[in-house]
Amino acid sequence: MSLRLSTVILPYRRWSEGGRQAWQRAEELGFHTAYTYDHLSWRSFRDGPWFGAVPTLTAAAAVTDRLRLGTLVTSPNFRHPVNLAKELISLDDISGGRVTLGIGAGGTGFDATALGQEPWTPRERADRFAEFVALLDQLLTEDSVSYKGDFYSAHEARNIPGCVQRPRLPFAVAATGRRGLRLAARHGQAWVTTGDPKLYENGTPEQSVQAIRAQVGKLADACAEIGRDVAGLDKILLTGFTPDRGRPLESLDAFVDFAGRHQELGFAEIVVHWPIPDSDFAADEKVFEQIAMEALAQLH
Asked: How much is the pTM?
């Protein structure tokens, strides 16, 4: 299986002060997709600059030609399917059909309370996520949608002309639990994992590989339940959250070893964070660019 290499560019820089250049450089380096986080703020970046995902991706679409663009990930925490669908259709049009929607259930961070609500319980997040994904799928594939659910409604919502990509732009569903994996099997063109968060602090890389192998097995089970071949669902690993942390970006050899171990598990795409000094995503930019330009040749 051939492997794709993609990146995440966090939206913390003004467009005129390095933001634009990063997206253009990602295309020059040959990354398959450049994603960004879809949060209102995130962890250690909360008290610093942070820009919106959809406007950032729209600007990126205007200054690139080949690079695919996407979110890792959008969630129901502060989004509604009706207006999100309109924004995605517009972004897909502006980019000429280069958008992938990474989508997840959301967590308990700043996004969960920014609109003044109490954080949802894990069960409510799962319930909302299921309804959110199904309605968004419908909105992006039908010209007019009316729907009344437990959490979301739509009344004659028009989405003409629809996506450039048909029948709609692809969903990359982030999930590790049984219900989320079923959503990925039913609605996803790809599945996203960051590994097992319980192993991040004290686990080993070997334990992480075993945990991810188990997740892949559960995804296969979810696909089998609905008669879908799991081979038709791309598997995406967002790096930086396994016990390896930033070590795969320390050298070309380290990355090739890391990526190869996960390629053997069936992953089609590895996503690395664009280096950010003085952060959890700090890395040597020269090594990062060497990985972008040379790693895949050693993995195919």
From this structure: 0.97
